[in-house]
Every structure is written in C-alpha cells, then in structure tokens.
Amino acid sequence: MRLLKIALHGFRGHPLHPPLTDVSIGAYTVATIAVVLGWAGWKEELMAGAGFVAVIVGLGAALPTAVTGLADFLKIPNDSGARRTGWLHLAIMVTATLLFALAAILLYPGYLDEGVPPGAAIATIIAFVVLTAGGWVGGSLAYVHGVRVLGREDASLTEALTPSLPELDAPTGRRR
Fold first, then answer.
1. Taking a C-beta distance cutoff of 8 angstroms, is the pair 38, 107 a contact?
2. Given pLDDT bands bounded at 50, 70 and 90, which one contains residue 172?
3. HEC string of the chain?
4. What is the CA radius of gyration of the chain?
5. What are the tens digits of pLDDT across the range 97-120?
6. In sequence order, which residues have a C-beta less than 8 Å from that of residue 146 and are 6 or more positions away?
7. CB-neighbour burial class of residue 3 (10 A; exposed 0-12, middle 13-18, buried 19+)
8. Whole-angstrom Cα distance, residue 98 to residue 124?
9. pLDDT at 148
C-alpha cells in the first residue's frame, strides 16, 4: 500500500506530478517547434517526423502525468479555491491532450509522406496554446494555493532534500 501511495504521490515535499509534467510539456514543446519549422519549409521531411514522434512521446507521458495529478487533486479539500482551480486545470489539460491526440492523427500522413499538413500544424499550435494555459493554471495550485508545498523556508539542506523523513509532519515540517 505504501508503494502505491509513493507511486501516485511521490514523497512528502517531492510530489511526483510536477516532474512528470516536464516530460510531456517538453515533448509537446519540441513537437510544436518542429511542426512550425517544418510547416514554414525548413527541413520539412525531418521536422514532420520529429514533430510526430515528439507528440507521441508527449501523449505517452500524459497518462502517468494525469494519474499522479488526479491522485493529488483528490486530496485537495472540496469547496476550496484550490479545488476549483484544480477542476479548471484538469479540464484544460484534458482538452490539450485531446488536441495533441488530434494533432498526432493529422501529423501521421505527413510523417509517412515527409511533410507537415497545414491542418496538423494548426492543431499542434492550438494544442500548445491550450497546454500553456493549463500549465499556468496548474502552477497556481502550487504557487498560489500551496498544494503539496511544505512551506519550510527554514529547512536545512538535508531536510530539504529528504522531507519525507517520518519525524517531519506536513504541512509545517516541524519535528514531532
């Protein structure tokens, strides 16, 4: 049971969802850059393939990212501003994921024919704009609402690197 909790949430002070978002956001960013460059005519054959593969990597990373995000979301108290922000983040990110799935479908023929279809480029750009909005909203969960943040400005380096030690209690991190 403890391993499942760690797999879903990470450790206290080191949540798993934020670093997983870096994988999908990074892949989608590479995809968007490649697709735009290819659509603009720069090494279109190479960029069409790179864009498609990067979108697929992003979609592959989206599942564990979404599962860990949902696990964190379910721990946010109901009827709170953080919960409402979480709902908005969830809706935007599901939309972005569906748009990137559409982009992948539209990019596939270009991947085979070594070109970037205009519809695929437009879908990718729109998906990236939605993704950016979702990341901005998601960031407010940590930076405004303090979700999964211990708030230990006074923690030593050792405590900051290992805040999951049992003698620390959340959210203050004070020793018991």
1. no
2. very low
3. CHHHHHHHHEECCEECHHHHHHHHHHHHHHHHHHHHHHHCCCCHHHHHHHHHHHHHHHHHHHHHHHHHHHHHHCCCCCCCHHHHHHHHHHHHHHHHHHHHHHHHHHHHHHHHHCCCCHHHHHHHHHHHHHHHHHHHHHHHHHHCCCCCCCCCCCCCHHHHHCCCCCCECCCCCCEC
4. 19
5. 999 999 999 999 887 888 899 999
6. 171
7. exposed
8. 11
9. 83
Confidence category of residue 11, pLDDT binned at 50, 70, 90: confident
Query: How many residues belong to the chain?
Result: 176
Q: Which pLDDT belongs to residue 164? A: 60
CA dist 47 → 33, 37, 41 (Å): 9, 7, 9
17-to-56, 79, 103 alpha-carbon distances in Å: 19, 22, 24
